[in-house]
């Protein structure tokens, strides 16, 4: 649920009716005039009833979804629901599979421009998921069987000669907003008639009231009422066909438009091409020109902010237009004949931005680059779609697809199937010529398919296709070298893939700073491959070198992978108990930067470390949690060969400690999301009291109990499937924690505890 930025006013009776109906009706569509408060009402209703749904509320904002593409619509819904789509099913199938067993309220906001694809999606979901209820806002009905259409009327307004009464909903809203934004203003018996005139002229439409309050910052309410009378009379005098509330809203927005400066009007219209928001740099780049100089954009934007036409983010780094105001601007842009020119500048800006983000990696700015892609992904999607569907610009669409893939945002955000969707579309739209860009795009597609656990033979064919094209091109294509090495290591467990990854690392490095992000990714995979398949003499220095490099760069995502590599080295050859701390630190970094991919690797590795340390229960819990994440995210880390080897060994050790039945009981159920899994690992406190003496860890307690039973170090190691050196390390810590110095003292202490 998004946080409400203002208080909710009125609608008590309508809310009560909706609360009664929503439990029985599978689909309720709130309809009414734009600006009539449908979204705010839906959010308030969802906030009031969310406890009735075991799996909560999911809010899906559709205003920025364009084109009516069912696949992209399902992608948007999947992202809002928090489930990455899976490579082996369509996005809609994945959504339906996820929702089928759940009790969820799905709030679909601003559906009117996507009525048919939204209706298809809703029919599919409601037909398969009996516990799901859908609450939609739309100016047009969805025409889905069982749909209950609820008109959201304007707020009630007082009669012309009504006495002062603050209980009217429209009065309450105006007073609340005016007292907050107009210093010292209060409703009084003297200004009450003018307040009534204002509310009656704007017909109680919430957005119109809020826009009227903006004017109260610069004029008394009496003058506002006079001017509203004039503007409504002029703008609606000859219109006998429009619905009254549409007339009112259009008239008020037109009046706001008339009170803007010429620069503000131009900017308002041109800002309508942005999807999901914009920053000042983008506004200057896209909206300047033809009557609006670049150095005038900031002042014009300030004017729109002052008039509440544009709204800022909390830190004022980004801005957006409310949807009715954006649509008004778009209509003005079309009528001025400027739309194609501004959209071309929008396309050019985000093509350049995608290339800049792919080429600007310096390490310390890694998280900022990923956040920048995330903030503008709605704009990137629109541009990609426009470029790819036009044969004249399809090659530019392929380049942009590759640039965005190189940023690694799709991996970071858990949106790997979407990356394949764009790459696949761009490749299909361009001729199969032999050039490095096409070979790199196919290689990226193969890499993502490998990460997603797509059938190995299909990935192999994709790798071969990229390799054949690279040979035809002549000269090295580093992306192809990289995917060949990654495939050998991860899909085959072949050591010769290590050298291919080393070669890719060198090839990317030779291309210079513009390919620093690719060079860094190759370094990650080279180190991972050595940690998983190399000897200790190879892996340990590689992990330390990579850790030092990431610290030098200040690359947070890279540092999380350096922790993973060092933790796995300690798990395999050193101190598995110490490895737990290293891996947990990596998980904390991953949570801090909101990484959706790395935690799957880290939680699985925690299972390996707990198993090596002799804590079978914790190992089973981590492995179960990781397996559940594979299922709900569609990222099949457990299908990668070296992972499968390590996990099989960990399961064997844990079962040797626990037995099959206890292992099954300890095996954690799946988490609903990566965030929930991170909370389980990093925040969850055991419910049962810790009865182990001296604060011993579960692994140390397992060793101590076996020593107390009279087993030697080699016998303990055999029983727990760990090395004698690890047993010795545990005993050293046990002695220190229990303040004893010998095996005999430990046996005596444990015997006393048993008594």
TrEMBL record:
Molecular functions per Gene Ontology: ATP hydrolysis activity; DNA binding
Gene Ontology terms describing biological process: regulation of DNA-templated transcription
SMART domains to which the protein is assigned, alphabetical: HTH_LUXR
HTH luxR-type domain ranges (all copies): 689-754
Descriptive protein name: Putative ATPase
Organism (species): Saccharothrix saharensis
């Amino acid at each position: 649920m998004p946080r409400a930025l203002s208080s909710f006013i009125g609608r008590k009776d309508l809310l009560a009716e909706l609360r009664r109906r929503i439990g029985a009706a599978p689909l309720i569509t709130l309809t009414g005039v734009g600006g009539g408060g449908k979204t705010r009402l839906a959010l308030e209703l969802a906030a009031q009833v969310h406890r009735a749904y075991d799996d909560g509320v999911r809010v899906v904002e559709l205003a920025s979804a364009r084109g009516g593409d069912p696949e992209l619509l399902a992608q948007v819904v999947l992202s809002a629901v928090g489930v990455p789509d899976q490579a082996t099913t369509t996005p809609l199938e994945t959504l339906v599979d996820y929702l089928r067993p759940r009790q969820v309220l799905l709030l679909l906001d601003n559906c009117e421009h996507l009525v048919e694809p939204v209706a298809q999606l809703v029919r599919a979901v409601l037909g398969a998921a009996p516990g799901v209820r859908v609450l939609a806002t739309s100016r047009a009905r969805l025409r889905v069987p069982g749909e209950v259409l609820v008109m959201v009327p304007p707020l009630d307004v007082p009669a012309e000669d009504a006495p002062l009464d603050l209980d009217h909903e429209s009065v309450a809203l105006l007073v609340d907003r005016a007292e907050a934004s107009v210093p010292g203003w209060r409703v009084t018996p003297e200004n009450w008639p003018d307040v009534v005139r204002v509310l009656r002229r704007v017909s109680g439409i919430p957005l119109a009231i809020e826009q009227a309050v903006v004017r109260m910052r610069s004029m008394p309410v009496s003058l506002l009422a006079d001017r509203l009378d004039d503007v409504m009379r002029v703008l609606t005098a000859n219109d006998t066909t429009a619905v009254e509330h549409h007339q009112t809203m259009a008239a008020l927005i037109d009046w706001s438009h008339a009170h803007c400066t010429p620069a503000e009007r131009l900017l308002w219209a041109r800002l309508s091409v942005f999807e999901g928001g914009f920053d000042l740099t983008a506004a200057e780049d896209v909206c300047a020109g033809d009557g609006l100089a670049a150095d005038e954009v900031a002042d014009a934007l300030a004017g729109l902010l002052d008039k509440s036409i544009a709204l800022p983010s909390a830190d004022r780094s980004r801005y957006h237009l409310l949807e009715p105001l954006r649509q008004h601007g778009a209509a003005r842009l079309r009528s001025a004949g400027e739309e194609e020119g501004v959209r071309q500048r929008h396309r050019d800006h985000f093509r350049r931005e995608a290339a800049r983000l792919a080429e600007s990696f310096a390490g310390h700015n890694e998280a900022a680059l990923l956040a920048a892609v995330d903030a503008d992904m709605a704009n990137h999607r629109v541009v990609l779609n426009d470029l790819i569907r036009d044969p004249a610009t399809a090659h530019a669409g392929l380049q942009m697809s590759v640039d965005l893939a190189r940023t690694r945002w799709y991996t970071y955000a858990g949106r790997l199937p979407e990356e394949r969707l764009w790459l696949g579309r761009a490749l299909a739209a361009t001729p199969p010529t032999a050039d490095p860009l096409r070979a790199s795009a196919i290689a990226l597609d193969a890499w993502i398919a490998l990460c997603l656990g797509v059938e190995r033979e299909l990935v192999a064919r994709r790798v071969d296709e990229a390799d054949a094209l690279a040979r035809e091109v002549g000269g090295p294509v580093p992306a192809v070298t990289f995917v060949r090495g990654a495939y050998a290591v991860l899909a085959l467990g072949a050591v010769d893939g290590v050298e291919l990854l080393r070669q890719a690392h060198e090839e990317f490095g030779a291309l210079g700073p513009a390919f620093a992000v690719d060079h860094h990714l190759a370094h990650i995979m080279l180190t991972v491959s050595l940690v998983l398949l190399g000897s200790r003499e190879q892996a340990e220095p590689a992990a330390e070198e990579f850790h030092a490099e990431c610290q030098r760069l200040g690359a947070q995502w890279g540092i999380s992978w350096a922790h993973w590599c060092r933790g796995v080295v300690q798990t395999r050859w050193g101190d598995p108990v110490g490895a737990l701390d290293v891996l947990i630190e990596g998980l904390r970094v991953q949570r801090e930067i909101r990484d959706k991919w790395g935690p799957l690797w880290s939680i699985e590795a925690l299972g390996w470390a707990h198993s090596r340390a002799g804590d079978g229960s914790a190992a089973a819990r981590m492995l179960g949690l990781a397996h559940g994440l594979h299922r709900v995210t569609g990222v099949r880390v457990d299908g990668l060969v070296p992972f499968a080897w390590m996990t099989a060994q960990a399961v064997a050790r844990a079962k040797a400690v626990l037995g099959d039945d206890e292992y099954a009981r300890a095996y954690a159920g799946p988490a609903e999301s990566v965030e929930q899994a991170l909370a389980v690992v990093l925040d969850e406190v055991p419910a049962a009291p810790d009865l182990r003496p001296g604060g011993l860890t579960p692994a140390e307690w397992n060793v101590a109990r076996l020593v107390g039973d009279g087993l030697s170090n080699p016998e303990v190691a055999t029983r727990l499937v760990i090395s004698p050196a690890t047993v010795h390390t545990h005993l050293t810590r046990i002695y220190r924690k229990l303040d004893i110095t010998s095996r005999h003292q430990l046996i005596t202490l444990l015997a006393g505890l048993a008594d």
